[in-house]
Amino acid sequence: MTHRIILFRGMNTGGVRAPVAEQRTMAKEMGLTNPRTLAASGNLVVESGKATATLEREIEAAMERTFGLKVAAMVRTPDQWAKLIAANPFPKEAAAHPSKVLAMVMKAGIKAGAVEACRELAAEGERVEAVDGVLYFWFPDGQGQSGIFKKATPRLLGMGTGRNWNTVLKLGEMVGLPSA
User: Fold this and answer.
1) Is there a contact between 155 and 68 (Cβ–Cβ < 8 Å)?
2) Is the pTM of this model over 0.90?
3) How far apart are the C-alpha atoms of 176 and 3, rounded to whole Å?
4) What are residue 88's phi and psi, to 5 degrees?
5) Where does residue 65 rank: exposed (0-12), middle (13-18), buried (19+ CB within 10 A)?
6) Nearest CA-CA partner of 28 in 62, 56, 54
7) Rounded CA gap, 81 and 91, in Å?
8) What is the largest CA-CA distance in the chain?
9) Residues 4-48: pLDDT tens digits?
10) 120 CB contacts (<8 Å, ≥6 apart)?
11) Is 136 exposed, middle or buried (0-12, 13-18, 19+ CB in 10 A)?
């Protein structure tokens, strides 16, 4: 049995709510062990021997049964998370301003043309790179001011969910990865 990081798309935004204590209870009822949450924004860490794709399907079904929510879940192993951290194309920016670097974990890959479209939407200084199916963003003025962030949708990018670098590193620590 090993850790699994579960990311929910759009949790606690736009009226999509599932209290974290109830998410942990749901995970236990599913037979997942040691469920822990990080913030109230769709981050759940559990221990499970299930394959990521199987766990994604099961957790999405449980969210719909338990909360009446049809939300996308992205599940990653500690090894996948370590590779995501190591692949960050903006390490200097992440070290200096971790809240302004975002990793977008994709459910089924990045849509063709997504990176180019983001670059066209980018405000001055914003950058985007795709590495191993993850979109990495640098928002020097923050996400709230971003031309990309305001206009990029799943239709443009593919289904995914973003976490700022602070959250990426905290989730890594929760599954036993060394602190960066």
Assistant:
1) no
2) yes
3) 9
4) -50, 115
5) exposed
6) 62
7) 15
8) 48
9) 999 999 776 666 678 888 999 999 999 999 999 998 778 999 999
10) none
11) buried
Contacts for 7 with CB less than 8 Å, ≥ 6 apart:
42, 43, 73, 74, 75, 76, 105, 161, 163
Quote the Cα angle for 86-55-49, to 5°: 80
User: Residue 50, SS3?
Assistant: coil
The structure tokens listed for 57 are 């399907």
Side chain identity at residue 162, one-letter code: G
Apex 153 CA angle, 11 and 62, nearest 5: 30
HSE-up of residue 25 (Cα within 13 Å, Cβ side): 7
